[in-house]
UniProtKB/TrEMBL annotation:
One of its GO terms (biological process) is branched-chain amino acid biosynthetic process. It comes from Candidatus Raskinella chloraquaticus. GO terms for molecular function: branched-chain-amino-acid transaminase activity. PANTHER family: AMINO-ACID AMINOTRANSFERASE, AMINODEOXYCHORISMATE LYASE. Its EC number is 2.6.1.42. It comes from the Bacteria. Acts on leucine, isoleucine and valine. It catalyses: L-valine + 2-oxoglutarate = 3-methyl-2-oxobutanoate + L-glutamate; L-leucine + 2-oxoglutarate = 4-methyl-2-oxopentanoate + L-glutamate; L-isoleucine + 2-oxoglutarate = (S)-3-methyl-2-oxopentanoate + L-glutamate. One of its GO terms (cellular component) is cytosol. This is Probable branched-chain-amino-acid aminotransferase. The keyword Amino-acid biosynthesis applies. Keywords: Amino-acid biosynthesis, Aminotransferase, Branched-chain amino acid biosynthesis, Pyridoxal phosphate, Transferase.
Length: 285
């Protein structure tokens, strides 16, 4: 059987990945001057997608790139790309850069943004790691000060993820002023021994996670107490449960931090319940 080519989207055209080209002078390539979003796809359709497209619009606005598409246009392109790739479960990626211009830190405000989109097949519904729990490490947060913007300039996260990989663990939690900011590509949560779900309050220090928001709503509906405040690594080490959330992991229990067993060494009931309810909601919506 000949494998069908992977189809990507570049500026209005669907084409095989091998044929897709981005100009050398694209500012996304030269400066990391762009915004991205990642939505999950389950059973061939996007889940929890609207808040991702709203966050895309907000991030673009914050760095003065004109959003080239309406929400409905984005959804139509996403659906078409999912269909063309026959994607059942995985991720859909959107990147919008400021566009192409001779290399210069500044450029005219009206150059046309570059849009690139692709899908990635990646089963996450029945991720075996969610049953055993993940290991993480902690490292200083080296990022810039506008982490609420989903910028494609991800060097600090790349280094944090490479360190995680070298340590043989799934994620790095980044620490600043003695407190956890967030994961390299996820939101950080603990459940205290008193049963409170704790995650950092929204600010320019962290990305406003879409999965964070949805799981907080689910927790509130289950009468679970959610507190938004910063916490220390020590608190996490002594918490009843530890987990992280993102579009690609949903809710992932953590069982070791920096090589030390935490949360009793097994995934706890709160994260298991939130994960279960999340899939129940998205699968029945
Ligand atoms: N990352 N914090 C950071 C720094 C992230 O990069 C992400 C997501 C999150 C979780 O956000 P959400 O729940 O909206 O996915 C938090 C994506 C998945 C990525 O970079 O691939």
């Amino acid at each position: 059987m000949t494998p069908s080519p992977r189809i990507v989207y570049v500026n209005g055209t669907y084409l095989p990945l091998e044929e897709a080209k981005i100009p050398v002078m694209d500012r996304g390539f030269l400066f990391g001057d762009g915004i991205y979003e990642v939505s999950a796809v389950l059973h061939g359709r996007t889940i929890d997608n609207l808040p991702h497209l709203e966050r895309l619009d907000r991030s673009l606005g914050e760095i003065a790139i004109k959003n080239p598409h309406s929400i409905n246009e984005w959804i139509a392109i996403q659906d078409e790309l999912i269909a063309r790739n026959g994607l059942a479960e995985g991720l859909i990626y959107i990147e919008v850069t400021r566009g192409v211009y001779e290399r210069d830190f500044t450029c005219p405000p009206d150059i046309a943004p570059t849009v690139v989109m692709f899908t990635q097949a990646k089963p996450f519904r029945d991720n075996p790691l969610a049953k055993t729990g993940a290991a993480i490490i902690t490292l200083p947060d080296l990022r810039w000060k506008r982490r609420d913007i989903k910028s494609t300039a991800l060097l600090a996260q790349v280094l944090a993820k490479q360190a995680a990989k070298a340590a043989g663990v799934a994620e790095t939690w980044m620490v600043e002023d003695g407190h956890v900011t967030e994961g390299a590509s996820s939101t950080a949560f603990i459940v205290t021994r008193a049963g409170e779900i704790v995650t950092r309050e929204l600010s320019t220090s962290i990305l406003p996670g879409v999965t964070r928001r949805t799981l907080m709503k689910i927790a509130a509906n289950l009468q679970m107490k959610v507190v938004e405040r910063a916490f220390t690594v020590d608190e996490a080490m002594n918490a009843a449960e530890i987990f992280f959330t993102s579009a690609s992991t949903i809710a992932m229990p953590v069982v070791t931090i920096d090589g030390k067993t935490v949360g009793g060494g097994t995934p706890g009931p709160v994260v298991a319940k939130l994960r279960e309810m999340y899939f129940e909601e998205v699968e029945n919506s």
